[in-house]
Specification:
Largest sheet: 10 strands, antiparallel
Helix content: 10-25%
CATH class of the largest domain: Alpha Beta
CATH superfamily of the largest domain: Aldolase class I
Distance between the termini: 38 Å
Structural class: alpha+beta
Bound molecules: alpha-D-galactopyranose
Radius of gyration: 26 Å
CATH topology of the largest domain: TIM Barrel
CATH architecture of the largest domain: Alpha-Beta Barrel
Number of strands: 36
Number of domains: 3
Number of helices: 12
Length: 702
Amino acid sequence: MIRYLADRKSWILEDTVAYAFGLTPSGLLVHTYFGAPLPHEADYPLPADFPIPVPFSGTDENSGEEYPAWGGFRFIEPCLKADFPDGARDIRLSYNNHTIEGNQLSIMLEDIDRSVGVKLVYRISRSVVERYAIITNNGREAILLEQVLSGALTLPDAADYRLTYLSGRWGAETQLQRSMLGKATHVMESRRGHTSHSANPWCALDPDGASTEERGPVYAINLAYSGNWKTVVQSTPVGQVRIASGIHSFDFSWTLAEGASFETPKFLLTFSDEGFGGASRNMHAYIRNNVLPLGHRNELRPVLYNSWEATAFDVTADNQMRLAEIAAEIGVELFVIDDGWFGARNSDNAGLGDWVVNRTKFPDGLDAVSKRVHELGMKFGLWVEPEMVNPDSDLHRRHPEWAYRYPERTSSQMRNQLVLNFGRPDVQEFAIGFMNRLLDETAIDFIKWDMNRVITEAAGLDLPADRQKETWTRHVQGLYRVIERVRTSHPSVWFEDCSGGGGRIDPGILGFYDQAWISDNTDAFDRLFIQEGYSFGYPANTMVAWVTSEHSFLGRRRLPLAYRFHSAMAGVLGIGDDVSRWSDTEKTQAKGLVALYKEIRPIVQQGSQYRILPPGTGSLAAVLYVAGDLSEGVLFTYLNRNHYGNPLPILRLPGFQKDRLYEVESGDGPAQTMSGRALHLVGIRLNLREEYESAIIRIRAK
Ligand code: GLA
């Protein structure tokens, strides 16, 4: 899988894709190839210095370095920039040695005369290459790191590239965006302390914008990090396209003491020549098989009920039990009490930080509730927000110094709350302590872990003033440490990631949480867009979606119950409506749909996803999931508009076994029999008529 070709001074990582790089005659470590594996070693390009001198530029910045450190003629985005105590500010890396241990390649680089080492670590897992860097100070004085990215990738020459990325805001996360690169530098970033609603570190590039959903070369990247990050896509003066990604350098610095190391988050790279669909499926498989926490990695996600939209902060034992009974009747498997169960939490004004059950609302404590939920045959879940505190809370009165703040200045509040300094070991111990206590004292099977504001005034570490810029990074390290410790003590508990909806979703957080709440927007039509964007980088078994009321709190339309279910059933199904208001007919319909979901869930959650018709293209939207053994598929279709009585577009369905025969349930007519090839080349036409009519079409091998 990983080879070193001494005569070519090249390293090749090969699996279902190949990634190659090597040393040029002048000693630069440069990228040489990323794409489909090549048959012969000699097929991989030789590492070469840029062939012609470019006045006012240099060989270094044009040769496609794997990990450029700032220094010399490098005006491109550097991966590494440091300050030395004597005022020198450049690093010149040269190759020292390498090791290959199983599926891990490490390349050791060193500065030419200062004792700074950079270890580049590479792994390949099927179609995904993981890269990260470890910077070590082997000298006798501390150095200041100003920028430490995870890595850089150089793309093959093309006239231009198209950038596909995700942007958004609260309630409208993961909106798909596309633009040609041209000659501008594109920066996608978060400076908000979490991954952010406004941008996500996933992005993809295709040469000349010519690739399609299922055809053509696509390079996609992601960054496993849940704090401030940036991805810089730029064209060098000679037209080479480079992508560098890592922890954001804005308001960042890190003092690297003598003997200390700094490890970057993982930079993930994939290639597919099966278009954007192929690149997405690569990332889905990787996140499912390599990233998600081991404990529940291969388990089907339960159908959940969440009380937030039904009861908001007015949770009581009585109203939760009423909801739980109906949820159980409908077929729900996990009942989650959201915000409002603890302290003086009657609104968002007070109580955050006081993680003790509110006895006025739950006179017999949480135990009684958990017991009843278990008797109803469901798992029991609870909402928490460990990184936060309301100023009006016992915790804040006890420890005002635990919230982020600048000395002698007031901190900004959002949703009446402040952020706890998770970089402080005492705050981490507090969070580990109360979470472990909560999980030890009550039979809780599931935690929804929220983070309902961004970070400001990032300071207050027990470190000198010139080290306060470490705060942003230490928050993320602290969070990862806390959740890791809590998970290790409670391996059977499920964890859901949330940050006011999808504000903190990335392959870093998904290493600790089993699934994610991807948006507070529960309008089933808007959701199709959010879910579409999400699916470019993340698998359906992490994508929690609730069925809420006919007229969602953000929506400007009424949607039928079936449509709301069909939208949510394309991910991890949940119900979030006030089910005590549902009629018997609605409950019966819901029960049938939950039962259907349980049948198709293995295909949705663990199969391969094909975006057949994006919701933005016109009347009809469609998404297909095909089982791993190709024996079955589930097609979700939604008629969102209907103009001029036009017939609906034909849906061509890839992904099935070409010469196998399948039975296609059409919804309202007799089943048809078609081969996998015909499903792809001929396709099917549906018979939906009404706006917001939807259907689930099952396709089963005969
Ligand atoms: C956030 C979450 C919601 C809900 C509320 C509770 O907004 O995204 O789902 O949990 O907090 O305050």
